[in-house]
Amino acid sequence: MHPKQLFTTLGPLTRDQLGKILPHEHVFVDLRTPDQPGYAQADTAAVVALMAPQIEAIKAQGITALVECSTGGVGRRADLDLAVSLATDFPIVVPTGNYREPWIPDWVATASEAALERWMLKELNEGIEDTGVQAAWIKISAGDDGITPLEARILRAAAHAAKATGAVIGSHTIKGRVVMDQLDIIEAEGGRADRFISIHTQAEPDFDMHRAVAARGAWIEYDHVGRASDDEVVALILRALEAGLGRQLLLSHDRGWFDPAKPGGGEPQPYTHLVAHLLPRLRAAGVDDDMIVQLTETNPFEAYAR
């Protein structure tokens, strides 16, 4: 058995080669639908010019890798992630998969479950398009009020690809009950709930649902650091730690990014708040160094490595 590896733009890395990891950020996103003119198009040099300083800022804080959460349908560009990564000598973790309706390209909408699985497996095992970047994980989504038949087809394909590779599935899902439905589908397809990340768990107001998702074995993710007030985020994290969820909790900003729909890519939001502000607040609240390491180093590696 080889040790677990985190697949990145700079190749596979082991736990001892990494420190703090940001598990949910974006370098490049296009939230227009794929049928829009100019969708996901940008000048590589412009993306690097805007985003390399954001990466350098977290490198200076001791962050050692960042997970790119832009998937198919919302402008995933592994080539641009690679360009930023090479310019900064910083590993970026890229997904395969596709977002929810209406952000689904025509080819995904018409592809069979088997074809979608083959596509994901190729990206996970060989690489994304002609970039040479191996996808580390599978990013999907589900409708806020429930899973559509098309989203379920993508999820079943993801479950099979995850089972074959050990890759984790992360899903933008707002309601806890929809997460539970997704876990039911994954387990029905022979997949494992502990290889699933409930992205945006904080958007579910019922904390009992956070517990319930974690009780299934899944990762829960609070990715509103720096976007909600520190008081709110700290209180939620402390509640999760008191509930014994520390070994399944991921923390990130869900910030960035170069947006090709905006002039010059828009104004990026930094990835620095966690280290600069949130971790000191957690330490002041009594969270010890071992748990800080668990939350910022061990958990993100264990979630995304395979």
Defining key terms:
306 residues; alpha/beta; six-stranded parallel sheet; three-stranded parallel sheet; 11 strands
Fold blueprint:
Elements lengths: L5 E3 L2 E3 L6 E6 L18 H16 L3 E6 L9 H11 L3 E2 L1 E2 L9 H5 L2 H13 L11 E5 L7 H17 L3 E4 L3 H13 L7 E4 L7 H9 L3 E4 L7 H13 L6 E3 L21 H12 L4 H16 L2
Parallel strand pairs: 3-4, 4-5, 6-7, 7-8, 8-9, 9-10, 10-11
Antiparallel strand pairs: 1-2
Helix pairs in contact: 1-2, 4-5, 5-6, 6-7, 8-9
Write a structural description:
The structure is a single chain. The chain has a six-stranded parallel beta sheet. Helix content is 41%, strand content 14%. Helix 1 crosses helix 2 (78-88) and helix 4 runs parallel beside helix 5 (149-165). It has helices at 44-59, 78-88, 106-110, 113-125, 149-165, 176-188, 207-215, 230-242, 273-284, 289-304, and strands at 6-8, 11-13, 20-25, 63-68, 92-93, 95-96, 137-141, 169-172, 196-199, 219-222, 249-251. The protein has 306 residues and is an alpha/beta fold. Strand 3, helix 1 (44-59) and strand 4 form a beta-alpha-beta unit.
What is this entry, summarized?
With 306 residues, this protein is an alpha/beta fold. It has 10 helices and 11 strands.
Beta-strand percentage? 5-15%
Helix content: 40-55%
Mean pLDDT across every amino acid position: 98
Along the chain, the helix and strand elements come as EEEHEHEEHHEHEHEHEHEHH
Shape summary: globular
Strand order of the largest sheet: 6-7-8-9-10-11
Helix tally equals 10
- For the secondary structure, the number of strands is 11
Instruction: Kindly name the structural category.
Output: alpha/beta
Largest sheet: 6 strands, parallel
Distance between the termini: 11 Å
Write down the Rg.
18 Å
Taking pLDDT < 50 over at least 5 consecutive residues as the criterion, the unreliable ranges are none
